[in-house]
Design brief:
alpha/beta, eight-stranded mixed barrel, binds ligand C2E, binds calcium ion, Diguanylate cyclase/phosphodiesterase with PAS/PAC sensor(S)
Length: 275
């Protein structure tokens, strides 16, 4: 039995080593990704539910690694957050998204709002507001065409810091949306203290809302409450006509999901920008 125990220990520690090595490798590759220009943004249109007009576009990061191929953000964003690499990567994303949105405007299309995902770690940077300001100045994108998406947990985690920063950003005319709403422990009343204008219902509630009574009830309650606080609501992850019809009936404002389009490279997203 003792020998068995030892073997198990060895097995565990070699598994841990493999994991550590794997992490270490990915970290090194992630460090080089910016200078190697391996990041690219894909864009997913967001629609007005009533008339199907395009309101905005969410920028979603993709890593096209020369060592590992396309890596999903679910795989590398957590590591980027832990290592702090999300700071330079996050600024790259902001700048690229603003630049692309300005380019579309300059081509003469009706202006759209570009939404960028922001990690908790980024909001902890003292000069985050200043950096966002310079990016807007550099790219010449008018402030009202930028929206920052922060998750519910990010907003609540550092509520005091977030409050001040988000206020400053709001005063600049930048829009703030609460992402993944319903997955954390905040209430809308609590969030309402922040200068936000829109909440995004997490796709986990949308997925089964047409078949699961509880999910349907949650979605309806969030929409009603948000409206009573004069916030607009986006449903993310909408995949079916049934889901869309219920959302329309409940007067949800905006829709984003595979039903209309998956995230696309900028050139392919142009057809939605042209609308
Ligand atoms: P998120 O911000 O909640 O983004 C929505 C995710 O749902 C995206 O996954 C999108 O591709 C996916 N999606 C959109 N429509 C549908 C649908 O109809 N059905 C389903 N099943 N999925 C749909 P993606 O692109 O893999 O991004 C995953 C997460 O990674 C994002 O979730 C966001 O939290 C994070 N992320 C992506 N880009 C960035 C970034 O630039 N910065 C930061 N900090 N996080 C990012
Ligand atoms: Ca988002
Ligand atoms: Ca989400
Ligand atoms: Ca998310």
């Amino acid at each position: 039995a003792k020998e068995n125990g030892k073997n198990q220990m060895e097995m565990y520690s070699s598994e841990i080593n493999t994991l550590t090595m794997e992490r270490f490798q990915m970290e090194n590759q992630l460090r080089k990704a910016l200078e190697r220009e391996e990041f690219v943004l894909h864009y997913q249109p967001q629609f007005h539910l009533e008339n199907n007009e395009v309101l905005g576009i969410e920028a979603l990061l993709r890593w096209n690694s020369s060592d590992r191929g396309i890596v999903s953000p679910m795989e590398f964003i957590p590591l980027a957050e832990e290592t702090g690499l999300i700071i330079p990567i996050g600024y790259w994303v902001l700048k690229e998204a603003c630049r692309q949105n300005k380019r579309w405007m300059d081509q003469g299309h009706r202006p759209k709002i570009v939404s960028v995902n922001i990690s908790a770690r980024q909001l902890q940077e003292k000069d985050f507001v200043q950096a966002v300001k310079s990016i807007l100045e550099d790219t010449q994108l008018p402030t009202q065409y930028l929206c920052l998406e922060i998750t519910e947990s990010t907003a609540i985690k550092n509520i005091d810091i977030s409050m001040n920063m988000l206020k400053e950003l709001g005063e600049l005319g930048i829009k703030i949306a609460i992402d993944d709403f319903g997955t954390g422990y905040s209430s809308l009343a609590m969030l309402k203290q922040l200068p936000i204008s829109n909440i995004k219902i997490d796709k986990s509630f949308i997925r089964d809302m047409d078949v699961d009574k509880d999910d349907g009830a949650i979605v309806r309650a969030i929409i009603a409450m948000a409206h009573s606080l004069e916030l607009t609501v986006t449903a993310e992850g909408v995949e079916t006509e049934d889901q869309k019809n219920i959302l329309l009936q409940e007067k949800c404002n905006y829709l984003q999901g595979y039903l209309y389009s998956k995230p696309l490279p900028a050139e392919e997203c142009l057809r939605f920008v042209q609308e």
